[in-house]
TrEMBL record:
GO terms for cellular component: plasma membrane. It comes from Phaedon cochleariae (Mustard beetle). InterPro entries: Peptidase_M2. Residues 1-20 form the signal peptide. Belongs to the peptidase M2 family. PROSITE patterns: PEPTIDASE_M2 (PS52011). This is Angiotensin-converting enzyme. The lineage of its organism: Eukaryota, Metazoa, Ecdysozoa, Arthropoda, Hexapoda.
Length: 656
């Protein structure tokens, strides 16, 4: 057991606990094993937490759909109340020794309430970390940068009000590498430095809380959410398996980028510069599809024109998505969903347009918020969000704490498995939106390339972000930025377009870092997405290549999904995988994803057959970009030069 690592057993203030000195403890846990009291506490908690969730979500919904200062204040008030409620809950829960509670359901719930929480900190530090995170989120949301203006010098005026959304648009659309490098630098140079000290304090507090909860550091506590000490190895193995496919993709993409930008921007056989991949974080390469698509003549897979021609409305797109789910025997959206969802951008008020699915925790109210635009991307997004609603509906009878995915990757994994069946040539053809023969080889390779630019390109980024955070919690903050780029280069094969130093804090350019949002879930979700899809396809009796499988109208596939969703988080996720694979395995695996992309891998290997290096070779110039003190630009390590200089000085002194 993880907790047995901790030497001292501690007793704390509580309903029937004993008082101890908080400064001298390693780990907080009560002694009570009273099941009746535990069950009564959990019953009360269930009602109160559901009510609290309803209040907070209602306030958040009101603000997101009408962004006024007043509604923002109300939302912050409710969020602060919830933070207080969480702290009180922890105080009540930690009185029990969950490891010795006889009832497995109560034990599981108490474990959830006393781990992965900062509530073990003193009131003062608990408030401090809460406010640090909101300050960091605010800085992230309000940072503005200057536009690229060739010919204009530093002291002249340029437009300096570009926010993250504008920057993302430039990174997606521009093909001017100087503009891309400028935009990339602006964001990274402006966002990191103001967050650095705050983040260091945050990491310190997160570690203190984790140690009070019985963990070595906050990274170990984050891994504990997966309820299996071997899970890291399992993920490392999947990453290892995906690497050959990623390297083939990168090699092919590099060749195309050299054709576009020349070998002064992209070094043949080297890593890729992070600014020319169509995305601020180089995590999704779909925006450079126009440069890399294998068969440009067969480029048209976008059914937007057909959606417009057939006169779709947002409502009809939502009804179409609902019919997708009911065709598999899954639930229709409840009346409250249709009454309260926001499916169009309203006139006359400012709203937050990011698509999202909401559970109001009262078993009645479920909503989607989306400023639907009439295009294929939005049609697919609706299916994704509605899959989250299906998940909410299926586990809605579970206790509050179990109303979640089996592990943090399940919700997103299931929603994306649905998307694999919708953004799918056969499906689009079946629903009358795609009229070309879908058996065409070139079309299928194009389709797989598009998917690979999104999914395969994403794998190393999704994997490394949390590795960086784990390293930071374990080893401290001394090499924060160099460590970030070490991992980016090692796993992703990308380098920054400009020199970086320890004054920078480039990991903070990704919102999940300053906003304290765990990220391993996205890597897990990526694998699960294909795993769930494959199992559902087998149940549906589909026999062709995996990327052509469509779950539409398959009740058998619906049953597979239903079984995954309805247990929520009440069972260990290994049990869920074991039962969805009919006993075959309980492991997360990369095999289904590799099977999906196999035709593309064959194609890529053929394309790359004359390449000297599949993958990338790292030169000292690459590392010099982010470790300038070790590798000065000349290639001779600066530290070595400094050392020789000192020796010479001492020698001169000596001979004088
Ligand atoms: O953060 C998100 C969603 C919220 S669940 C917007 N995603 C990850 C990211 O943006 O990096 C979705 C894809 C991965
Ligand atoms: Zn989602």
């Amino acid at each position: 057991m993880w907790v047995s690592l901790v030497a001292k057993i501690v007793i704390i203030v509580g309903m029937n606990g004993v008082i101890c000195d908080l400064e001298s403890v390693n780990w907080l846990r009560g002694t009570s094993t009273d099941l009746t009291k535990a069950l009564q506490f959990l019953r009360e908690y269930d009602t109160e937490a559901s009510e609290m969730c309803f209040r907070v979500n209602t306030a958040q919904w009101q603000y997101s759909t009408n962004m006024t200062d007043l509604l923002k204040r109300k939302m912050v008030e409710e969020q602060t109340l919830r933070a207080k409620f969480d702290k009180l809950t922890w105080k009540r829960a930690v009185v029990f020794d969950w490891t010795r509670i006889s009832d497995p359901v109560a034990r599981r719930q108490l474990k959830m309430l006393t781990t992965n929480t900062r509530a073990s900190l003193s009131d003062e530090k608990y408030n401090e970390i809460y406010h640090l995170i909101s300050e960091m989120k605010d800085i992230y949301a309000t940072t503005r940068t200057c536009a690229y203006a060739p010919g204009i010098h530093d002291n002249e005026v340029t437009y300096c009000d570009l926010g993250l959304e504008d920057i993302q648009t430039i990174m997606a659309k521009s093909k001017d590498h100087k503009e891309l490098a400028h935009t990339w630098r602006e964001w990274h140079d402006k966002i990191g430095p103001p967050l650095k000290n705050k983040y260091m304090r945050y990491a310190d507090l997160a570690n203190q809380a984790a140690r009070l909860n019985g963990f070595l550091d906050a990274g170990e506590e984050m891994r504990f959410m997966y309820e299996d000490p071997d899970f890291e190895n399992e993920l490392a193995q999947t990453f290892h398996k995906l690497q050959p496919l990623y390297k083939e993709l990168l090699t092919y993409v590099r060749r195309k980028l050299i054709e576009q930008y020349g070998d002064r921007v992209v070094r043949p056989e080297g890593p890729l510069p992070a600014h020319i991949l169509g995305n601020l974080w180089a995590q999704d390469w779909t925006n450079i599809a126009d440069i890399v698509l294998p068969y440009p003549k067969f480029a048209d897979m976008d059914v937007t024109v057909e959606i417009l021609r057939q006169g779709f409305t947002p409502l009809r797109m939502f009804q179409m998505a609902e019919e997708f789910f009911t065709s598999m025997g899954l639930k229709p959206m409840p009346p409250e969903f249709w009454r309260h969802s926001m499916i169009e951008r309203p006139n006359g008020r400012k709203v937050q347009c990011t698509a999202s699915a909401w559970d109001f925790c009262n078993n009645i109210d479920f909503r989607i918020k989306q400023c639907t635009e009439m295009n294929m991307k939005n049609l697919i997004m609706i299916h994704h969000e509605m899959a989250h609603i299906e998940y909410y509906l299926y586990y809605s009878d579970e206790p509050y704490l179990f109303r979640d995915g089996a592990n943090p990757g399940f919700h997103e994994g299931v929603a994306n498995a649905i998307v694999l069946s919708v953004f799918n040539l056969k499906h689009l053809w079946r629903v009358g939106l795609f009229n070309t023969n879908t058996d065409n080889y070139e079309l299928n390779i194009n389709f797989l390339m598009l998917m690979a630019l999104k999914k395969v390109a994403y794998a190393p980024f999704a994997y490394l972000l949390e590795q960086w955070r784990y390293d930071l919690f374990e080893s401290g903050v001394t090499r924060m930025n160099a460590d970030w780029w070490d991992l980016r280069l090692r796993y992703q094969g990308v380098v920054p377009p400009a020199t970086r130093s320890d004054a920078h804090f480039d990991a903070a350019a990704k919102r999940h870092v300053p906003a304290d949002v765990p990220y391993a879930r996205y890597y897990v979700a990526l694998l699960l997405e294909f795993q769930v899809f494959k199992v559902a396809c087998q149940a549906a009796g589909q026999t062709g290549p995996l990327h052509g499988c469509d779950l539409y109208r398959s009740r058998e596939a619906g049953r597979v999904l239903m079984d995954i969703m309805r247990s929520g988080k009440s069972k260990h996720w290994r049990q869920v995988i074991r039962s969805m694979t009919r006993g075959e395995t309980d492991r997360i695996s990369a095999d289904a994803m590799l099977e999906y992309f196999d035709p593309l891998l064959v194609w890529l290997r053929n394309q790359n057959r004359d390449e000297k290096v599949v993958g990338w070779t790292t030169f000292k110039e690459d590392k010099a970009l982010f470790q300038p003190l070790i590798y000065g630009g000349s290639g001779v390590p600066t530290a070595k030069l400094a050392c020789i200089f000192v020796v010479v000085l001492v020698f001169i002194q000596f001979v004088q």
